[in-house]
Amino acid sequence: MAPKKKEEPKAAAAPAAPKPPEPERPKTPVFDPATVTLEFTPEQIEDFKDSFQLFDTTPTNEMKITYAQCGDLIRALGQNPTNTEIMNVLGKPKVEDMHTKMLDFDQFLPMHQHICKAKDCGTYEDFVEGLRVFDKEGNGTVMGAELRHVLATLGEKMREDEVDQLMQNQEDANGCINYEAFVKYIMAS
Amino acid sequence: MGCGVSKSNPFHKNAGKAIKSAVLIQRWYRQFVARKEMRRRYTWHIFQSIEYSGEQAQIKLYNFLGYLMDNFTPASNERNLISHIFRDNEVCRDAEWERYFCYKNIEVPDLYSGPHLTFPLTVEQAVGLVEAFRNKKQLHSRYVLQLLLETWKQLRLLPNINRISTCHSKEITICGDLHGQLEDLLLIFYKNDMPSLEKPYLFNGDFVDRGKDSIEILIILFSFLLVYPSEVYLNRGNHEDHIVNLRYGFTKEVLSKYRMHGKRILKLLQKIFSWLPLATVIDQKVLVIHGGISNTTDLSVLARVDRHNYNSALRPPKKRHQREVGESIDSDEEAGSTNKVLQRRPSLTSPRTLTRNCFQNRSLQDFSDRLKANTVEEVEVHERLPGPFGPENDTSQSCESISSEDEWKQILDLLWSDPMAQDGCVPNEVRGGGCYWGPDVTEDFLNRHNLQLIIRSHECKQEGYEFCHNRKVLTLFSASNYYDVGSNRGAYVKLGPDLVPYLVQYQASSMIRELSVRQSAGRSERSANKVLREQLFAHKSDLICAFKKLDIENKGRVSLANWASAVESVMRLGLPWRIMRSQLVTGRSADSSIDNSIDYYEWFNELAIKGANADHIDQSLLETLYRHRSTLETIFRIVDTDNSGFITMEDFRQTWKLLSVYLKMEITEDAISDLAVTIDSNQDGSIDIEEFMEAFRLTDKKSRLERGRSMFMGTATDLTKLEGDPHI
Questions:
Q1: How close does chain A come to B593, measured CA to CA in Å?
Q2: Residue A11: its pLDDT value, please?
Q3: Is B239 a catalytic residue?
Q4: Confidence check: pLDDT of B718 > 80
Q5: How confident is the model at residue B320 (pLDDT cuts 50, 70, 90)?
Q6: DSSP, res B200
Q7: Has residue B288 got a pLDDT over 90?
Q8: Are A54 and B579 in contact (CB < 8 Å)?
Q9: Degrees (nearest 5) of the Cα angle B574, B577, B578?
Q10: Position with higher pLDDT, B291 vs B691
């Protein structure tokens, strides 16, 4: 009997890839705005109002935004939730409702508060550690092509044009990215 | 014999980490995009507010000068200074004009390396001109005049409203504002080919001003017009107007490129502009105009006006008894302030609430109080005060079917109006001319005239175009990077016999491709920021006054909320000041903001903008200078009648007196002398306008601070050293 060949470390001997887990807690309860205590200061609320108004595109300045804009606004205010988290605080609306249903400022506040309270926005170290996974040579760089592939196929996938935009001018002549610099770039928005 | 090695994701062991990492990056990316969008919005607001308030200022100035003309005694100096800009209605036969514009005795030197033209013009020559300009050549003034003369002859044959058809399956290409940006025109020709028998074009106004190659664009457009008179169409825009050109750079461009004959060229262009058609109708279904419509727009009236009588759309042919549109520029605190309720910049997406009077009911601006308050000795004010004229009171013209007032309004509306989201039609006070018109007006207009679409330009749009009013109105803008590198794309539209608009976008400037997304957005923001800081500094006195009112305990500090409301009450730009405070309040005044209050004196020190040599000059005079730079420069150019770039000391003094009357300010003789001394260093009694304006250009102290500092300190990390040189 031929000796068992030494298997490649990356062979299919590994168990089948587990279904990618959702990044947040597995059981997400239905979001109830009434259970959220607002802890913002009046100053903060004024700031939010200003930004809210900037996103308000109603003809008569009704202080309302669409569901689709809610995520953008929360992000513009400095949080970085996942899309799933956003959909959760919106009450898991249907896709077709995203551009038609509106919310006003009072409805927005508890949603924003909930996102602000959620732990874990990812530290610099988290990032770097995550990217290190793709650092085959352990030299502080990842292949741009690999990263693009990952961003477009895993997690909350990005579109090709989004990936292009993010990666523009990040790759060096060999198509490699220094990921510590890359993370600093992303976080310094 | 091994198991099949699957070529699946090689990182199975690290699958969880990989995904987590991906999600992290994606989250941060989405945040980055959202923040960028927010910054883009208010950067846009800044540029647009300031652009439109500039237009408004220009109109006010012009109206004021017109009023002076009507009310000063003929002998007064002030009148002489400015009378020449109103000399557009001299009765002069064409033969005399042709003598004045004669190019024949202009010699072209052997050293001239630019294109030579022979008439009648051929296609090769037109194409040759495009090539020459691409290679930065300049056309000799002899040929310019010759070309313009031919153009003038051609335009006089055209009706007010071009009527064209897309028969023979020809698609017509329509371009919006070009504003002297030759690169964009070249890009359009590159993508879409130049005009030809198979490729008709329509250019919808605003060919000139702001960009640096306005005259070259005109030459190209006119050449193709002459070569293909049935395939090339031009509409007049609000910038095809010598009054507007005085402020927005075209006059300056021509005079500096053509030192000897610039004045003649400009005069001839005045005539040409007035002969440009006002509108174009395609297949009797699509109307193309530069600005827009109002609830009184009537194409049959427009078809009959004598358009060439309107050298400037800002002034009707008859000088007497006109309606003055506009308010005093500084005293918004008057009762007129109810007209200026602005929460946000009135764009289509977030227009203002409306509390203004109908256009017809505006009373004549009364400038007489200003004249009485001035310190100019020679001025004699006529006793005749203008009363509240309006069409309803103007009985002398009621017998005419169309009054010249109405005619004027028709043209003004066509060239200056903007669409709005609400129904109705109200005066466009932001620009100072034309209307804001609503979807109901569009609907009514289209029905009455049996049309289906309005294509217009006049407003810069981020994507180069924008539909509104249920897609019945299309705004088309063809000058990319208008506000700054990376600010917007340009677009042109192709219309075939099916009359379905097919839009093509582009963005000129090779620099764009090299900048990363962050960098190009950053440039725009920095630019807007600089402009805004200048404006803030120029309003220092008023701002300090507003702050003091809110600083009851006189601590030199105001809360953030008060700071924002005070700034808005003075600047009236409808900007989100709170969001922007991190760029505007920097340095020590930000660091020391305990409990979010701001030390406002410190803040002005940080804004710390001063020109050279400015220390001995009176503070309020300095502010006036900064605030009304553009107006001052415009007046200089008007006063400089021989276009030499120099004005005498005496004229300089008179200019300041004019300005002081206009602004209702007292400016002493000494203060003016101080200013003059600063600049007339060789003391020969004449002042170089350019040098003067340069001496008072604001230098930005901030640029001397550390360059690497992040623009937006919303997050705690300050890691933007990677951004490199912000001044690429």
A1: 13
A2: 40
A3: yes
A4: no
A5: very low
A6: -
A7: yes
A8: yes
A9: 135
A10: B291
Q: Mark yes or no for CB contact A59/B351 under 8 Å.
A: yes
**Three-state secondary structure along B446-485?**
HHHHCCCEEEECCCCCCCCEEEECCCCEEEEECCCCCCCC
Which of B471, B536, B533 shows the shortest CA–CA distance to B503? B471
Bridge partners of B288, per DSSP, are B280, B455
ipTM score: 0.77
What are the C-alpha distances in Å from A88 to residues A33, A70, A71, A94, B27? 11, 12, 11, 11, 15
**The predicted structure's pLDDT at residue B490:** 95
- Interatomic CA distance for residues A187 and B405, integer angstroms: 60
Q: Which residue has the higher pLDDT, A22 or B585?
A: B585
Terminal Cα-to-Cα distance of chain A (whole angstroms)? 61
Catalytic residue among B45, B140, B179, B239: B239
- Max mean pLDDT among A160-164, B393-397, B523-527, B607-611 falls in A160-164
Reduced to 3 states (helix: H, G, I; strand: E, B; else coil), residue B618 is coil
Taking CA atoms, what residue in B is nearest to A75? B31
Q: How does residue B522 score in pLDDT terms, banded at 50, 70 and 90?
A: low
Kindly determine whether residue A17 and residue B15, on different chains, have CB atoms separated by under 8 Å: yes
Interface of A with B in 71-100 (CB under 8 A): 71-76, 78-83
Whether A43 and chain B come into contact, CB under 8 Å, resolves to yes
Taking the CA atoms of chain B, what radius of gyration do you get in angstroms?
27
Contact residues for B194 (Cβ-Cβ < 8 A; gap 6+): B126, B127, B130, B224
Residues above pLDDT 70, as percent of chain A: 80
List the one residue out of B458, B440, B165 whose CA is nearest residue B285: B165
What is the C-alpha to C-alpha distance for residues B695 and B678, in angstroms, rounded to an integer? 9
Q: Hey, how many other C-beta atoms are within 10 angstroms of the C-beta on B257?
A: 18
**Spatial distance between the Cα atoms of B658 and B67, rounded to a whole number of angstroms:** 12
Percent pLDDT > 90 in chain A is 4
Quickly count: other Cβ atoms within 10 Å of residue B552's Cβ.
Answer: 8
Joined together, the tokens standing for residue B431 give: 């620009």
Q: Is A46 in contact with B561 (Cβ distance < 8 A)?
A: yes
* Cα–Cα nearest to B200, from B227, B223, B171: B171
Q: Are A171 and A179 in contact (CB under 8 A)?
A: no
Q: Under a CB-based contact definition with an 8 Å cutoff, are residues B329 and B474 in contact?
A: no
pLDDT at B501 over 60: yes
> Which of A78, A82, A165 is closest, CB to CB, to B23?
A82
DSSP letters for B118-181: -SS--HHHHHHHHHHHHTT----HHHHHHHHHHHHHHHHTS-SEEEE---TTPPEEEE-B-TT-
Contact A150 B42 (CB under 8 A): no
Assess whether pLDDT exceeds 70 at residue B85: no
Q: What is the mean pLDDT of chain B?
A: 75
Question: Where residue B397 falls among pLDDT bands split at 50, 70, 90?
Answer: very low
| Partners of residue A8 in chain B, C-beta under 8 Å | 2, 5
- What would the mean pLDDT of B686-704 be, rounded to a whole number? 60
Minimum Cα–Cα distance from B421: chain A residue: A59
Half-sphere exposure of A131 toward its Cβ, with a 13 Å CA cutoff?
A: 28
Please report, in angstroms and rounded to a whole number, the separation of the first and last CA atoms in chain B. 60
CA distance A100 to chain B (A): 16
Residue B225 makes CB contacts below 8 A (sequence gap 6+) with B151, B154, B232, B234
In Å, how far are B167, B398, B563 from B697, measured between CA atoms?
A: 54, 51, 27
Residue A23, classified by CB atoms within 10 Å of its CB into exposed (0-12), middle (13-18) or buried (19+), is: buried
With 0-12 / 13-18 / 19 or more C-beta atoms within 10 angstroms meaning exposed / middle / buried, residue B308 is middle
pLDDT above 60 (res B546): yes
Q: A53: which chain B residues are within 8 Å (Cβ-Cβ)?
A: 343-344, 576
Lowest mean pLDDT among B127-131, B341-345, B424-428, B592-596: B341-345
